[in-house]
């Protein structure tokens, strides 16, 4: 049972444009959502998060939007840079620091 | 603090052999987590500790897998009688028990140990 789904395995975007990565979840108990970025042969690196009490969180070029009624979140990267090329994982958990459930990832390629 | 350290980075073993991986968490973090990642998938939760107590184990953690954190600091993950299906990246993460600041999420991963069973 895939509780966190990323239906786009890959995305290509021109440098300077907006990248939009999408994520859907099924478990209504999730109350905290995260995005991780992963380069090959490295562990995931925390990027940005959002609590279920908010619908938007922004950090520099990165903005995460949460639509609880649709059980959907998205990550916007503006402007996209070649160094953003990586695999992005959407993740979720409930009840503080416990296990995190990850999606299958979206490979972003930013073309110079 | 140098973050979460995992050793070794790579391990190649023959089927049927036992392997052990080590994780050193961030020193002030009392929670430690093990995940497994296979090609094309996201990390899958295996188990986690608070100090030396193992609080949860996934059904993915078969009886060939055992994890310990004897003194509440570093942890080891042992796989006995390895099978080719055990080939994966094994990731360790650590966090405080309660959020200190949710804006700087303290759930930090190591670089992982890549296991290849031949």
Percent strand of chain A equals over 45%
What is the H/E string of chain A? EEEEEEEEEEE
Indicate the multimeric state: heterodimer
Strand pairing plus helix content of chain A: what structural class? mainly beta
Q: pLDDT under 50 segments of chain B (min length 5)?
A: none
**Number of separate helices of chain A:** 0
Walk me through this protein's architecture.
The complex is a heterodimer of chains A (112) and B (118). In chain A, the strands form 2 sheets. In chain A, strands 2, 4, 5, 9, 10 and 11 form a 6-stranded mixed β-sheet that branches. Helices cover 0% and strands 54% of the residues of chain A. Chain A is globular and about 40 Å long. The relative contact order of chain A is 0.34. The termini of chain A are far apart. Chain A has 112 residues and is mostly beta strands. Chain A contains no helices and 11 strands. In chain A, a hairpin with a 4-residue loop joins strand 7 (62-67) and strand 8. Chain B is mainly β. Chain B has strands at 5-7, 10-13, 19-24, 31-37, 44-50, 53-57, 65-68, 75-79, 88-95, 108-109, 113-117. In chain B, strands 2, 4, 5, 6, 9, 10 and 11 form a 7-stranded mixed β-sheet that branches. In chain B, strands 1-3-8-7 form a 4-stranded antiparallel β-sheet, with no helix packed on it. In chain B, strand 5 (44-50) and strand 6 form a beta hairpin. Chain B contains no helices and 11 strands. At the A-B interface, strand 4, strand 5 and strand 10 of A face strand 5, strand 9 and strand 10 of B.
């Amino acid at each position: 049972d895939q509780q966190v789904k990323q239906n786009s395995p890959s995305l290509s975007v021109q440098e300077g444009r907006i990248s939009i990565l999408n994520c859907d979840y099924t478990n209504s108990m999730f109350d905290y959502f995260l995005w991780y970025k992963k380069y090959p042969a490295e562990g995931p690196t925390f990027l940005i998060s959002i609590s279920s009490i908010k619908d938007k969180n922004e950090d520099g070029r990165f903005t995460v939007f949460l639509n609880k009624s649709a059980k959907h979140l998205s990550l916007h990267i503006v402007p996209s840079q070649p160094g953003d090329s990586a695999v992005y994982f959407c993740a979720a958990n409930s009840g503080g620091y416990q296990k995190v459930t990850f999606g299958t990832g979206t490979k972003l390629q930013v073309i110079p | 603090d140098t973050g979460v350290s995992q050793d070794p980075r790579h391990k190649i073993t023959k089927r049927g052999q036992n392997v052990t991986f080590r994780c050193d968490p961030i020193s002030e973090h009392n929670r430690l987590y093990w995940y497994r990642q296979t090609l094309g998938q996201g990390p899958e939760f295996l188990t986690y500790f608070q100090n030396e107590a193992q609080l949860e184990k996934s059904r993915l953690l078969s009886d060939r897998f055992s994890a310990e954190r004897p003194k509440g600091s570093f942890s080891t993950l042992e796989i006995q009688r390895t099978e080719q299906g055990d080939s994966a990246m094994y990731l360790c993460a650590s966090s405080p028990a309660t959020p200190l600041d949710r804006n700087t999420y303290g759930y930090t991963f190591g670089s992982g140990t890549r296991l290849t069973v031949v």
